[in-house]
Amino acid sequence: MSEPARILLVSNGFGEMAILETIAKAIAAREPSASLAHMPLVGRLNDDAWPPPVGPQAAMPSGGLVTYWNVPNIVRDVGAGLIGLSLSQFAFLSRQRRSYDAVVAVGDAYCAAACMWFARLPAVVVATAKSERVAPHSWVERRILRGACVTFARDEPTARELMRGGVRACYAGNAMMDQVAAPEFALPIAEGAIHVALLPGSRSDAPQNTRAAARRLLRMSALSGKRVQAFLALAPAADTAAIIGALKVEGFDVTVYRHVKGVMAIALRDAVEIGLVRSGLAASIGAADVVLGQAGTGNEQAAGLGKPVVAAAAPGESPQSVGWYRMRQQKLLGEALVVLQGDDDAFARDVLTLLADRERVAAMGAAGRERMGVPGASDAIAQAVLDVAKEGRS
Questions:
Q1: Which structural domains are found in the chain, ordered by start?
Q2: pLDDT at site 90
Q3: Spatial distance between the Cα atoms of 379 and 370, rounded to a whole number of angstroms
């Protein structure tokens, strides 16, 4: 009887953490006896998280947003101890050679390089962070990925270009979409209301994003004369208490329940109701007519589910000149995402205008589904990981 597979999964971002967990569940479904561990290069995991966390971890000011050489974020992270953290993580990885049969890198080429160069284990790369639709992989990135046993690209154009560059790449669907393939539960839907999903994100600006979204919902209700029902999907890493506090600052009365999953709090003001939903991203998106999102992965998943996604330009930006992160997301999602000016009145009017244009809503939904692709990748990745682990033991 063969020994259980020992697999180290490494993530490089908050969205990547969630994708990794989905892949881990697929691995466990195929081989329940497999030994799994999760090392986050970005962010912190709770001690009771599954797969169990290993290795040095710390929260950085940028929340991991340092790709495309975002110099201000890099400078802030370095000041908060990024170099020392990275060296500790590299040292930890270098000691794992005999502890695992394979390593799975979920993230970008940096994550892949850390896994292959320091752990020196057979590697599977889940390249969630980059697409040919935004920017091609550089010669250095392709050289790094050539060291992987297999690289799962996030879309077909990226897989084709990687293969041309000598990378053992394939496209098996988008692992992001496996997380939202089916709603976790049913949410109570109010008839005759405008239904909105709020995705304030998982980083430190989530409370600020929540305040802005709450104001815009109030304006949408006032301008339309309709009730607005919103479901705010709480990210696992979000500060729930701070988000509740943000709603109270905007004049909402908040009632908190003790539910582990589902609607754990209701915020009310005038004709606006906001339900705070825990462990219900797919349910929140599925219940919405439109998604107001300042998230990363969440915005992309909402687009993939065929929902129109609206983001607000940050202070000092305009819809024509957004920051590098939202620019990247616009290129990824194409017509599925629209960025509006941050002024509350103008934002609310534009969202209502969008909802009244059924043809545009349908076109945005079709674009999102086309750009994000189909679910099912996690199962294919799980099988590949177990095959690589088996070969690593032989």
A1: 6-180+375-393 (3.40.50.2000), 194-372 (3.40.50.2000)
A2: 94
A3: 21
Q: 131 with 156: CB under 8 angstroms?
A: no
Angle between helices 14-30 and 377-393 (to 10 degrees): 70
Residue with tokens 């750009």: 371
Q: What is the pLDDT of residues 67-99, one digit of tens each?
A: 555 556 676 776 656 788 889 999 999 999 999
Q: How many C-beta atoms surround the C-beta of residue 193 within 10 A?
A: 17
